Amino acid sequence: MLRAGAQSVLRFTMEGTWMLDHAPRPLAAHLLFESRDLDEARDKVARVFCPHRLDTVRGRFHARQHHLPGEKLSLNYIEYGAKTMIAPGALRDFYLVQIPLCGGASIVNGGDRYTSDPGRAAVLNPHRETTMIWEEGTRQVLLRIDRAAMQSHLSRQLGAPASAPVTFQGALDLRSGAGAALRRLVLWLVAEADDGAAPLTGLMGRQLEETLLSGLLDAHRHDYAAHLGRSRSAPRPRHLRLAESFIEAHLDQPITLEDVAEAAGTSARNLQLAFRQYRGTTPLAFWRDRRLTRAHADLIAAAPGTRVTDVALRWGFAHFGRFAESYRLRFGLTPRDTLRAALGPGYQD
């Protein structure tokens, strides 16, 4: 038997519309508020998002918000009933993905002007002024993404610090390709929450959040798309391939830039240029990142009795404070949190 949340998701997927009149509202168990008072609704929504102007244009106002928090993002459901004008200005601290289940909205985000509907989502950039008009009867699932988390994730994908915040462009097509896959993932998370699961908690929740961030970067147009494509698909010259192979074979050993250059048959300068051009990083940063990845895998697969210090030393991290900080920046949680999630209730510090 299909659960209520799954029934709603399947209706939307197959018929292109959300039959909310005959099914529970998404995230129904996570009701934040329901109100016919405009000022109350404005205040309650602002506590999750930001202060904003909210005015009715036409129709009967009846607002409600459902809210499911995670670490880097939150899932939300909002309806206002009436046609409403919403003007938050610059969101500043978060990106906002709005997926209409029925109805739609007119969006102004900086120089972008477009409309959203069940086939096209709105993606609001935090560093641009925003004004929206939601049509009467519009109901939306919203994904609030922490700006710092998006910037950190983008930098990891690039292999180097992103110099400016990513700027998404126009409406996000949800009808095919990566956009349709992203929509299905979001609605699956909603269905899991409606079935009583906690999809945004624990180690799996963190991985799902990372997947959502990657999915958005893959699915939508933005000003880093060409850089990401180049870093992922550029063919590697021979000396870079040799260098990467040498590094992979010596992850648990202390090596120097000169060691890697000698193994690759090139100069240290040429090697640095190759890593910068094709990987967006340095040879030693690549080495450190690969060791962090191995440490992460060991912590996830840890057996009872495993200690964080054992794993750190195994992969050449003698300074535990720096290891913990580098690990947190890379994976969004501490080594100890990863080990605790892997071992469950039996874990002891």
How would you sum up this structure, described in words?
This protein is an alpha+beta fold. The chain is built from 13 helices and 12 strands. The chain has helices spanning 4-15, 38-48, 147-158, 177-194, 202-219, 225-233, 238-249, 257-264, 268-279, 283-300, 308-314, 320-331, 335-343; strands spanning 31-35, 53-58, 63-69, 73-79, 83-90, 94-102, 105-109, 112-116, 120-124, 129-134, 139-146, 172-173. A 7-stranded antiparallel beta sheet has the order 1-3-4-11-6-9-12. It has a 5-stranded antiparallel beta sheet with strand order 2-5-10-7-8. Strand 7 and strand 8 form a beta hairpin. Helix 4 (177-194) runs antiparallel to helix 5, helix 7 packs across helix 8 and helix 7 (238-249) crosses helix 10 (283-300). The longest helix has 18 residues, at 177-194. It is globular. Residues 1-22 have low confidence and may be disordered.
